[in-house]
C-alpha cells in the first residue's frame, strides 16, 4: 500500500476529513432539537428519514469493511493496484456510525411525537436508494414551504460535502492519481448527491419559499375531514396564525377564519 509523499498534504487530508465529519455530525442535531422543542415532526418528510437511514447504513457497512477487512482491502488492491492508498479514512467510519445513530434517534422521534396524518409511503419501504433527498425536496415543493425542515442540517451538509471533496483532492494530488475518486465511488457520490440537493434546498428556502411567506400546515389526525390550508402574509388582521414563526408550534384553526 502506498504511503504519503508529503507530510503536509497528509496532515491537510486528516484535517479536511475531520472538518467534514464535524460539519456532517453537527448537521444532524438541528432537526433532532427542532423536533424535541416542538414535540412534533409535522413538516418532516418520513420518506426522507427512512431512506436516509438506508443510505447511511449501507455506507457504514461499506466504510467498515474497506477500512478494517484485510480481505476487502486485498480485493481493492487487486483491482486498482498496490500503489494506491485505501480511500476510506477514520473520519469516514466515525461519520457513518454517528449518522446511523442520529437518524435512528430521528426515527424514534417520528414514532413518539405528533405527526398529524403523515405516514411512510409504501413505495419507500421497497426503495433502497438515494431518493431520500428527492423526497424531502418534493415535499417542500408540494407544500411551497420549508417550515419544519431544518436548514441547519442542509448548510452543514453542504460544508461537509465541500470538505469531503477537498480531502479526496488532496490525496489525489499527493499520489498523482485520481483513482481514489472512482475507487471510493461511495464517498464521491454521497458528496455529489448531497451537494446537488443541498443547493436545491437552499434555493427552496431562500429563493422559492422564503421563511414566513406562505406557511403550509398538515393537520393532525384529530382533525380528520379538514383540509390543510395555506395562510399568506397578505391576510392582514389575522391574530391566530397557523404557525407561530417564533416558536414553530403548529396551531389548529378553523378554515372559516382563513381569509379568502
UniProtKB/TrEMBL annotation:
GO terms for cellular component: lysosomal membrane. InterPro entries: LC_transporter, PQ-loop_rpt. Keywords: Lysosome, Membrane, Repeat, Transmembrane, Transmembrane helix, Transport. It holds the Pfam family PQ-loop. Gene3D superfamilies: 1.20.1280.290. The chain crosses the membrane at residues 15-36, 93-113, 119-139, 151-170, 190-208. It is found in: Lysosome membrane. One of its GO terms (molecular function) is L-cystine transmembrane transporter activity. It comes from the Eukaryota. It is a multi-pass membrane protein. PANTHER family: CYSTINOSIN. This is Cystinosin homolog. The lineage of its organism: Eukaryota, Viridiplantae, Streptophyta, Embryophyta, Tracheophyta.
Amino acid at each position: 500500500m502506498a504511503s504519503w509523499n508529503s507530510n503536509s498534504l497528509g496532515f491537510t487530508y486528516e484535517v479536511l476529513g475531520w472538518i467534514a465529519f464535524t460539519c456532517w455530525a453537527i448537521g444532524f442535531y438541528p432537526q433532532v432539537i427542532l423536533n424535541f422543542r416542538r414535540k412534533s415532526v409535522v413538516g418532516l418528510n418520513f420518506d426522507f428519514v427512512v431512506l436516509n437511514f438506508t443510505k447511511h447504513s449501507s455506507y457504514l457497512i461499506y466504510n467498515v469493511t474497506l477500512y478494517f477487512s484485510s480481505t476487502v482491502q486485498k480485493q481493492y488492491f487487486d483491482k486498482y493496484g498496490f500503489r494506491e492508498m485505501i480511500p476510506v479514512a477514520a473520519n469516514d467510519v466515525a461519520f457513518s456510525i454517528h449518522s446511523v445513530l442520529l437518524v435512528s434517534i430521528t426515527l424514534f422521534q417520528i414514532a413518539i411525537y405528533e405527526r398529524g396524518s403523515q405516514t411512510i409511503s409504501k413505495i419507500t419501504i421497497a426503495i433502497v436508494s438515494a431518493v431520500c433527498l428527492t423526497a424531502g425536496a418534493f415535499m417542500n415543493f408540494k407544500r411551497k414551504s420549508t417550515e419544519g425542515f431544518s436548514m441547519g442540517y442542509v448548510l452543514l451538509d453542504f460544508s461537509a460535502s465541500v470538505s469531503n471533496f477537498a480531502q479526496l483532492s488532496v490525496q489525489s494530488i499527493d499520489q498523482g492519481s485520481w483513482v481514489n475518486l472512482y475507487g471510493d465511488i461511495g464517498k464521491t457520490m454521497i458528496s455529489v448527491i448531497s451537494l446537488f440537493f443541498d443547493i436545491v434546498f437552499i434555493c427552496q428556502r431562500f429563493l422559492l419559499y422564503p421563511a414566513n411567506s406562505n406557511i403550509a400546515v398538515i393537520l393532525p389526525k384529530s382533525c380528520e375531514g379538514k383540509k390543510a390550508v395555506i395562510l399568506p402574509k397578505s391576510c392582514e388582521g389575522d391574530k391566530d396564525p397557523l404557525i407561530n414563526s417564533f416558536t414553530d408550534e403548529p396551531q389548529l384553526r378553523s378554515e372559516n377564519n382563513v381569509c379568502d
